[in-house]
Amino acid sequence: MTTRILGSKPAFRAGLIGSGIQLSFSPALHETEGQALGLEYSYTLIDTDTLPEPELRSLVTEARKSGLSGLNITHPYKKAVIEHLDDLSPDARALGAVNTVVFERTSSRSAPTSSSTSACPRPAPQPRHSRHATGNRSSSPKGSAAPRPTSPPPTAS
């Protein structure tokens, strides 16, 4: 659901409901992807750890009333949110859990969770370097440590 038009770009607002999500990368990821798609996109964290008495039904209702297009749902609410939705996708029904809620004009429904709707290319994953894996505990640049031996050390006879 498009919430408004700013200039010539469709504008979307969405959010994430969960516990302990203040360090989530979701806002940056969603807003960057929206920008790449030519959208005005804002993504709000609704961290129940920061609320005095979080009540899931109220959070979902207020999110819809405030104009959000939808929500992502994370721990510990993926199962509990089901009773607050008007309709479930076959995937959500089979899994007994929801991670995506779409708000329509008069209803809320779970969206399929088994397929990606991303249209932005993703960069190839880069190898991770671990100081502990290489034995390098110095502050030298990544990749500067000598490689570890690949065969076991000889045994004494």
TrEMBL record:
Coiled coil: none annotated. The keyword Nucleotide-binding does not apply. Pathway: Metabolic intermediate biosynthesis; chorismate biosynthesis; chorismate from D-erythrose 4-phosphate and phosphoenolpyruvate: step 4/7. The keyword Amino-acid biosynthesis applies. Residues 105-157 are annotated as: Disordered. It comes from the Bacteria. Residues 16-101 form the Shikimate dehydrogenase substrate binding N-terminal domain. Gene3D superfamilies: Leucine Dehydrogenase, chain A, domain 1 (3.40.50.10860). Keywords: Amino-acid biosynthesis, Aromatic amino acid biosynthesis. Residues 108-121 have a biased composition (Low complexity). InterPro entries: Aminoacid_DH-like_N_sf, Shikimate_DH-bd_N, Shikimate_DH_fam. PANTHER family: BIFUNCTIONAL 3-DEHYDROQUINATE DEHYDRATASE_SHIKIMATE DEHYDROGENASE, CHLOROPLASTIC, SHIKIMATE DEHYDROGENASE. This is Shikimate dehydrogenase substrate binding N-terminal domain-containing protein.
